[in-house]
Amino acid sequence: MTQAAMALETGERHRFYEDVMAMLLGTLMVSIGIVLYTKATLLTSGAAGLALLLQFSTGINFGILFFALNLPFYWLAIRRMGWRFAARTFIAVGLVSVFTWATPAWLRIEAVDPLYAAIAGGSFMGLGLLALFRHRTGLGGINILALYLQEAHGVRAGWFQLGVDVVILAGALFLLPLDKVLISLAGAAVLNLILAINHKPGRYMGVS
Fold first, then answer.
1. Using CA atoms, how far apart are residues 37 and 122, in angstroms rounded to an integer?
2. Helix (H, G, I), strand (E, B) or coil at 13
3. Confidence class of residue 207 from pLDDT cuts 50, 70 and 90?
4. Using CA atoms, how far apart are residues 175 and 197, in angstroms rounded to an integer?
5. 10 Å Cβ neighbour count for 154?
6. Angle between the 114-133 and 141-153 helix axes, to the nearest 10 degrees?
């Protein structure tokens, strides 16, 4: 029996307002982490990491890049995870794009230590993703693939994403100083350890 089926059988279904709250808080936390990373010129995981890398190299706004990079992955979300998951993910990606654009006007950061940004930003993003994952909402790109592999094959989402992040950070060596890449790797480890420790198959039974 799948995790979703067990949850339905026991009646442990998320209420609509719980899903909305998780989506708003989760995307806001992820956005704060991304703003810290942008200020410190660091990279994070998956499509967000690639969007940051492109922002640093082209100057194009992160929100625009992040939204565009995720478009090809919605087909997998619809086919493998269902229309409801795909719709929630589309909304979550849109919220992160908007929040990352608006947050600098709400939260003015003059300077931030890169190591602090990596640890605090990685924690914010990890907790935000955890909230989204537990309400069957992804954040596009690699998150969709990671959630599918965990639900279909029992592969830990956090460990899978950590491997992908290593590849992205290796590519960053051509654009960023070595110390920024190493600090980014520490932040990616914090983010993915939060997911690997707290988001395990069978541990959290609520569904949307």
1. 9
2. strand
3. low
4. 32
5. 10
6. 50
Helices (H), 107-177: 114-133, 141-153, 157-172
Q: Which residue has the tokens 């998150």?
A: 143
Q: How far apart are CA 127 and CA 68, in angstroms?
A: 24
Helix (H, G, I), strand (E, B), or coil: what is residue 207?
strand
Q: What pLDDT, in 10s, does the model give residues 96-142?
A: 999 999 998 898 888 899 999 999 999 999 999 899 888 878 777 77
Q: Which residue has the tokens 């640890």?
A: 119
Q: Render 54-95 in DSSP notation, one character per residue.
A: HHHHH---HHHHHHHHHGGGHHHIIIII-HHHHHHHHHHHHH
- Report the C-alpha gap between 83 and 66 in whole angstroms: 21
Distance (Å, whole) CA 157 – CA 138: 11
The rounded distance, in Å, linking the Cα atoms of 154 and 156 is 6
Q: Distance of CA 123 to CAs 38, 117, 126, Å?
A: 15, 10, 5
Which residues, listed in sequence order, are joined to residue 207 by a DSSP beta bridge?
13
